Amino acid sequence: MLIRISFAILFSAASFAQSYWPTQSWRTSTPEEQGLDSNKLAEAIEFVLSEKVQAHSLLVIRNGFIVADAYFYPYMPNTRHDVASVTKSITSTLVGLAVDKGMIKDISQPVLGLFADRKASNLDDRKKAMTLEHLLMMESGLQCINSPTEVTLFQLLGSPDWIQYMLDLPMTDAAGTRFAYNSGAVHLLSAIVHKTSGMKALEFARRHLFEPLGISDVLWPADPRGEDNHGWGDLQLRPPQRAKPFSGLRRQGWARSPSAANSNSLAPFSLLLKGGTLGNVPQIRSNP
To answer: Hey, which of 21-30, 33-42, 122-131 has the most confident mean pLDDT?
Structure first.
C-alpha cells in the first residue's frame, strides 16, 4: 500500500525556552547545534528515496529551529498539504479560543442548546445530556461505525445536511462513558464555532489563529451548503506553517507571542494532545 505523507516533527528539550516566536518564519540551525545527528537525518531522507516512500516532505524542528527541511518531487516548499485529522486539533483549538473570547460560555453547555433552531430526531435523556466537552473528548455517545472504515463519516458525506445528520443519530452510550473516534462529531464543533462567533471556522481561524501566527496560504473546504468548514479534516497548510500552531500547543498557549493571542489565551484551559498524536482532538478541560 502506498502512503502519501507529509512529515512535520517537533522536538523540544525540557529545559528549553524559545527566545523568539516564528510569526513570519522559522529560524534555521545545523542539527548538531540543537543536539541532533545530521547523519541520522540524512539516512531518513535516503530511506524515503531508496524505498520509494510516497512522502511529500520531511520537516524537523528542534528547540524552535528548523534542522531539516526536505521536499520530494513534485512537492515544493510552497505546496499546501492536506493535514488530514490534524484538522481536528485545529478545530478544537478554535473552540478554546472562542471560549476565551467569551463567544462560548463554557464547554459544559449542552450541544442541543447550541442548535436550538433545529429539532433532533432520536431524542432521549442521553442526547439531551451531551455537552460540548463530550464532543471535544470524542465521548459524545452518538452512534459511530468505524469498521471496516469510517462508515458514519461516509454516510454524513452523502447526506444533504451534515449538521442535521449528526444531530439525528441515535445514542448508543451515555455521553462521557466511552471513547469513539467520531469525525462527524468534530464537524459539529466547526458549526458551533460558526454559530457562536458569527464567522465560519476558516474566517475565525484566519482572524484569531492563522494571521496572528503569520499563516496566510490556507485552504479549508466547506460542506455542500457552503456553511461550515470540514471540522474533521481536509485543511491544507504548508509544512512550516503547519508546525506553528502545534509549537504553540506544546508551550500551552501563545502567552509568549505578543503578536498572537493575549497573555491569557486559552486560560483557564489545559490543551493536551490526546494519545500523544496530532491527529486526535486536544483534551480541553476546565482547571479546578
So the answer is: 122-131
Instruction: For residue 57, list its beta bridge partners.
Output: 6, 71
Nearest to 160 by CA among 227, 70, 206: 227
Is the pLDDT at 133 greater than 90? The verdict is: yes
Question: pTM to 2 decimals?
Answer: 0.81
CA distances from residue 50 to 3, 43, 134 in whole angstroms, order as listed: 15, 10, 45
pLDDT of 48-74, one tens digit each? 999 999 889 988 988 888 999 999 989
Pairing of strands 55-62, 65-71: antiparallel
Contact 257, 23 (CB under 8 A): yes
- 97: helix, strand or coil: helix
Q: Extract the C-alpha cell encoding 112.
A: 442541543
How far apart CA 132 and CA 236 sit, in angstroms, is: 25
Buried b (16+ CB within 10 A) or exposed e, 274-283: beeebbbbbb
